[in-house]
Amino acid sequence: MKNALNGTSPASTDAPALAVTGLTKHFKTAAGTVRAVDDVTFSIGKGEIVGLVGESGSGKSTVGRCVVMLSPPTAGSVVVDGVEISGLRRGGVRRLRTGFTMIFQDPATSLNPRMQVSDIVAEPLVIHRKGRPGERDRRVRELLDLVGLPHMTAARFPHELSGGQRQRVSIARALIASPALVVADEPTSALDVSIQASILNLIKDLQRDLGFACLFISHDLAAVEYVADRVMVMYLGRVVETIDSAGLNERAAHPYTRALVSAAPVPDPDEQRSRTRITLSGDIPSPLAPPPGCHFHLRCPVAMDVCRDRAPELLPGSGAGHTVACHRVH
Amino acid sequence: MKLLDVRDLTVSFPTKKGPVLAVDGLTYHVEPGEIISLVGESGCGKSVGILSLLGLQGPSARLSGSALFDGRELLHASEKHLSTIRGKQVACVFQDPMSSLNPVLTVGKQVAEVLRRHRGLSAAQAKKQVINLLERVGIPAPAQRYANYPHEMSGGMRQRVMIAMAVACEPRLLIADEPTTALDVTIQAGILELLKELRDETGMAVLLVTHDLGVVADIADRVIVMYAGRKVEEAEVRALFADPRHQYTRRLLDAIPRRGGGGDPGRRLSGIPGTVPTLHESPAACSFAGRCVVASEQCHTAKPPFTESAPGQAAACWHPGAQTGHAATGALK
After folding, report:
1. Are the beta carbons of B275 and A164 separated by less than 8 Å?
2. pLDDT tens-digit series, residues B130-164
3. Average pLDDT, whole number, for chain A?
4. Which of these CATH numbers, 3.30.420.40, 3.40.50.300, 3.40.630.10, 3.40.50.11440, describes A18-228?
5. What is chain B's mean pLDDT, rounded?
6. What residues contact residue A252 under an 8 Å CB cut-off, 6+ apart?
7. Contact call for A261 and B263, based on CB within 8 A
8. Which residues on chain A are in Cβ contact (under 8 Å) with B272?
9. Which residues of A touch B258 (CB under 8 A)?
10. Largest CB tally within 10 Å, which of A9, A201, A226, B55?
């Protein structure tokens, strides 16, 4: 697939698809500074899918938006495919934008209702002046094939499509310029269960065939475990644990991850009713005034004195690629 | 004696393109103290099916059939009759507690209003009772929380307030429409636990509407599966998950990602191809036939009767036993 329509060639072949270091994002509001993301460091290898889970207010979507520069970080660096994008001005980011794209949660609001599907899908090529019109049309048809939409969809408007079909259009648009990195923010949360399964399969298949790296953000542990190679868990702006998907059930060590795993209901009545649940007291604290020390200590069932004073570092746990930020573990 | 007995409930809405049949001949019942779940995807009629019981279906809806609560008809009942039942004998909890609570009244006042209206308590008596209720539903520092406005509470706390309001008059039936859908899983677990406890303590029945089969597995005694306005299967919860008798139920269970076995590249979900049919008419066929992999000619031409396969389990499917496991459907996306 080497032609004018493909993305920028990577600056370095051994660099990870995404390297994020010390990412911090603060929002100034009338009530004070919201610390949405607090010193987050991680990387995604080429062709890897990393799941990012957490509850509302954990900062997972903000991480996604910072990574693609929809929301410039307050501090920290974001390196996509060997190129630092966090320090660039707007024009610089724009030139590189075909290399990192985003799939949003609600395809009903992220597609322009007045544009035909063919124009929506081709828009990244038009904006970046890639290819001649004939080539673009061919490429749009290629993409429609890839995401499983019939060619006649090209002349339709978003309102004529079902939710699942619209999400396929967003995926086609995100992939048309062959990005190195795709950030998918809750791509299946607005869809019904029966449709969700086919979209998860589609993302998995396309990733395998095209080899892009993917940050898959979701609150749904089962969906993340199904799609991702590795899972990263966030709580109140910080990453508390990173673990390979296969180990999530048995090897997860952080008390928050374990609570999350135990709270997600299993669609099997016998298994669900015999599980022991870790119940968390209280709610996620306000990111306006996060508690000192470990952000989780107020709700943690095994908190110690040190947890109130000192934030735990993200350190290696058991097994390759496992990191955990908890004083109980280290 | 059945607490709620709904027979052949049909709800349609007139539109420019002709009437839309949101609920098509729905029949079910709820026993006292039972947790029964109506399950289905968006547009299957599960919410309209319960809102119409309380006269909340909207002014343009046309209703037919019957719904007896404790032997008395609810459909087409007078507003006066309904207001003696709503809030007192039948209470509701909805999905989004923020839009169900009045933003300019303190939560305590709102819960107290129910007690004063239905039980005729004085302001002081009601306040005392409300603080007890808030404590019962797991709100810490209830006396202080009494004076909070809804925006000062988290989503989980607000839903607890809604539940406190709903159970204030010890209803015999609690209708809960997606009560945990807007909440995080760790909060959801607590709310489901609370509903079970309240059922055990007061013996109220719960009619739970949800799209989440994990929630169903957790809490329901009996399940009604709906598709395109119709009931397609009804079963005791364990039987439903162990041996679904409708192809739609079977495919729905295959479509949910399961925990465990993560990172296995060979694992594959099977989605359901196609989309839900439009509800402009009641087809003389199985509504699911167009998306069903085992559909035969019969499925497209004749509406399958609701047939009992085992005591307490029944489905409207011409091919209840046909196997379409992961192996058989692996090629489908």
Report:
1. yes
2. 999 999 898 889 999 999 999 998 888 899 999 99
3. 91
4. 3.40.50.300
5. 90
6. A241, A243, A258, A261
7. no
8. 194-195, 197-198
9. 222, 266-267
10. A226
CA distance A260 to A165: 31
**B226: helix, strand or coil:** strand
DSSP3 helix / strand / coil % (chain A, rounded to 5): 35, 20, 40
Q: How far is A244 from chain B (nearest CA, A)?
A: 7
For residue B203, what is the DSSP state?
-
Residue length of chain B: 333
A85 touches B: beta carbon within 8 Å: no
Q: What is the pLDDT of residue B324?
A: 60
A293 token code pair: 């020390």
Query: Rounded to whole angstroms, how far apart are CA atoms B248 and A194?
Result: 10
- H-only helix segments in A15-132: 60-67, 90-96, 107-110, 117-127
Of B328 and A282, the structure prediction assigns the larger pLDDT to: A282
The single-letter code of the amino acid at A196 is Q
- Show the domains of chain B with their CATH numbers: 4-220 (3.40.50.300), 227-329 (no CATH)
- Single pTM value for the model: 0.89
* Closest Cα in chain B to A161: B275
Q: Any idea which residue has 């079977």 for tokens?
A: B250
**What is the Cα A115 distance to its own chain's centre?**
26
Closest CB to B257: pick one of A222, A259, A262. A222
In whole angstroms, give the CA distance from residue A278 to residue A256: 9
The ranges assigned to domains in chain A are 18-228, 254-330
Question: Given this model, what pLDDT does residue A56 score?
Answer: 86
CB-based contact (8 Å) between A264 and chain B? yes
Residue B84 CA to its chain's centroid (Å): 23
Nearest to A267 among B41, B188, B258 (CB): B258
Check CB contact under 8 Å for A267 and B241.
yes
Instruction: Give the residue-averaged pLDDT of A205-233.
Output: 95
B266 touches chain A (CB under 8 A): no
Token pair belonging to A288: 């306006």
ipTM of predicted assembly, 2 dp: 0.84
Q: Alpha helices of chain B — where are they, by DSSP H?
A: 46-51, 79-85, 97-100, 107-119, 123-136, 142-145, 155-167, 185-202, 213-219, 237-242, 247-255, 297-301, 326-329
Subunit contact A222:B140, Cβ cutoff 8 A = no
Contact B217 A223 (CB under 8 A): no
Which B-chain residues 271-290 have CB contacts (< 8 A) with chain A?
Answer: 271-273, 275
CB B101 within 8 A of CB B157: no
Cβ B261–A231 below 8 Å, yes or no? no
Sign of CA dihedral B151, B154, B159, B161: negative
B141 touches chain A (CB under 8 A): no
Residue B310's SS3 state is strand
Which residue, among A191, A230, A182, has the nearest Cα to A105 in the 3D structure? Answer: A191
Q: Please give the DSSP secondary-structure letter assigned to residue B128.
A: H
| A148 at interface of B, judged by CB pairs closer than 8 A | yes
Point out the residue among B154, B188, B214 whose CB comes nearest to the CB of A266: B214
At B114, the amino acid letter reads V
